[in-house]
Each structure stands twice: as C-alpha cells, then as structure tokens.
Design goal:
By secondary structure, this protein is mostly helical. The chain has one domain. Helix content is 53%, strand content 3%. The chain has eleven helices and two strands. Strands 1-2 form a two-stranded antiparallel ribbon. The longest helix is centred in the middle third of the chain and has 30 residues, at 120-149. The two termini are 23 Å apart. Bound molecules: zinc ion (2 copies). One zinc ion is lined by residues 183, 187, 195, 199, 276.
C-alpha cells in the first residue's frame, strides 16, 4: 500500500443517512459533527450573510448593469486570495504545524514542466485567479440579474421560513450529487483533456482546489443554474457558490486540519479526495452521499480497497 504520512481512522465511512440498517443516532452525530459548534459549513453560511448585507447589490441595483458587477468580482477575488494564501502560509510556506496531519509525505509545492510557469504554486494561483474567480463571479451576476428581473424564482425568510433554512442544509447534499456526476463525466475520454489540468497536482495545496481548466469551471460553477428552478433568496445563491469555491480551497490543503497545541481544532481535509489525486480512478464524489459505493468506485483507504481498485482497473484495460 502506498505510504501516507497521515491518515484518518480507516476504513472511511459515508454519511449514515444512506446506510442500512438505519441508525438515527449516527445520523444525528454526522450532521451535528459537520455543522456544530464551529465548522466550515457554518462559517460559509455566516460569510454569505455578511456578503449579502455589506458587499452585494440589492435586487433593485441588480436589475441593471453597473459597478456592482465589478464589486462582486473584487469581493470574490479578495476572499479567495485571503483564504488560500492564509492556508498556504499556515501549512506550507510558514510550516506552522510541520508534518502533523499532512496526508502526503512529499514536500509541497513542486516544480516541473507540466505546470504553467514551471511551478505548481504559480500554476495553481494563475488558474484560480484568472479563470475560477471570473467564472464563479459571472454565474453569481447572472443569477442576481435573473432574480431581479423575475427570470428566476425568489423567496424570502418571511415567505417560507422552513424552506429558507433547509436550503442551507441541502447545499452540501446537492454538491455531493452534482459533483460526483460532473466529475465522472470529466474523467471520460472526451473531457479528460480539460480535467487533466486539475490532475497535474498529485499532491495538493489550498491553491490547487480551484486550479481547473475554464471548461471545468463552467461545469463546476454551473451548479448554480438550479436557482432557475427552485425558489431561493440571493443569500442562498451567494452561499451555494461560495460553498463550491471555498470548500474546494479548504479540502485541498493536503492536511486533515488545523492542529494547535497538539490537538486538531478545525477539520478540513478530505482524505477521500486526496486519494483521488494520488490514484485518479476512485473516489469521484464525497462522503456526504455514497455514490462511489453504489457504483463500485469507493476507496476506503484500506489495503483491501487498494487491491479491489487495482483488479477493477486491470479488468478495464483488458
Ligand atoms: Zn481535487
Ligand atoms: Zn478527477
């Protein structure tokens, strides 16, 4: 088995909501664990409210083109730069916790001719700022205009309070479903040429999360087109896109989380996806919904799963 510097408890397990026999207590623990008391998910919801209150147009402004569009691009650029640069400094350039919690033992970042500019960091920063952020912002602007013009259905907390709250909880579940499928399509012969850019990174850092080809960004942030179908509020749109953008940065640090004084304080990494970067042909989705289990592409990190994956790939190339 390929050696790792750090792994979580193995085998990896998926969201117990989809496991049988049904264990309600385990489901409650999974959701409490992924939302409370302080979590990335909750942080993104809070940030979305702050953005909508202080750093966004209102729906009147959004009904016509204006400087607010530039404001969205600028706000998203600043947030991603702050987050990815901060995490890169903590984990990699500043080495604030050494190798504690780092999955891959190899040093990061690397250099090589496969990278834009010959450097993994330059490559990753370039594709994030020159492609990911503009495409993310363009989709956000599209939905702001559509809500303002009435092309997309709108709701408010006063209209539908339960639905308003539920949408936030549905975003990670939807992401697990949507991402699994576009990711599998990106691994097809037709589209892999685009996805290969993300896979230049066999080990990852925060800037690798959004380092993708523009075609992949269009598919990835295209998730937000669902707001043309389901009634939502602008804060849901901002949160939905930020969830896709910021969790990509956060789950690609290459580390399981932030350790301070010998204890993991914030959980971040996804060993599940780290294995995808090392092995390519497994773990297309996330642990939130068991798509990989249904379709036989799940690698739980154990030697058995490693052997199963190798058999499956041998069978395919025959
Ligand atoms: Zn990735
Ligand atoms: Zn992939």
């Amino acid at each position: 088995m390929t050696s790792w510097n750090h792994t979580p408890d193995l085998p990896l397990t998926v969201n117990p909501l989809f496991e049988r026999p049904f264990k309600p207590a385990a489901v409650v623990r999974w959701y409490v664990g992924s939302w409370l008391p302080v979590s990335i998910n909750l942080g993104i919801v809070v940030l979305s409210f702050l953005c909508v209150w202080f750093l966004s147009p209102n729906l009147d402004d959004a009904s016509s083109p204006g400087l607010w569009m530039l404001g969205i691009l600028l706000r998203n650029t600043v947030i991603v730069t702050f987050l990815a640069w901060g995490l890169h400094w903590w984990f990699h350039s500043g080495q604030k916790q050494g190798l504690t919690g780092k999955y891959d033992p190899r040093p990061f970042p690397r250099s090589g001719r496969m990278f834009t500019g010959g450097s993994q960091l330059v490559d990753n920063v370039t594709w994030t700022l020159a492609s990911a952020v503009p495409i993310w912002s363009a989709f956000e602007i599209l939905i702001w205009v559509s809500l303002a013009q009435g092309w997309a259905p709108e709701t408010t907390f006063a209209d539908t309070p339960i639905w308003f709250v539920l949408v936030f909880l549905l975003i990670p579940i939807w992401e697990s479903f949507y991402f699994y499928w576009i990711h599998r399509v990106l691994h097809s012969n037709v589209l892999y040429r685009f996805h290969a850019l993300h896979h230049r990174n066999t080990d990852v850092g925060p800037w690798s999360g959004l380092s993708m080809h523009p075609v992949e960004h269009l598919l990835y942030f295209g998730t937000v087109l669902i707001h043309f179908v389901v009634p939502t509020h602008p804060v849901h749109v901002v949160c939905h896109l930020m969830y896709f953008a910021l969790t990509a940065v956060i789950t690609h640090t290459g580390f399981e989380g932030i350790w301070v004084r010998g204890r993991k304080r914030i959980h971040m990494g996804m060993f599940h996806h780290q294995m995808h970067h090392r092995f390519f042909e497994c773990n297309y989705g996330s642990l939130e919904m068991p798509w990989d289990k249904f379709f036989g592409t799940f690698h739980d990190g154990t030697d058995d799963a490693d052997n199963r994956m190798r058999d499956r790939l041998k069978g395919r190339s025959r």
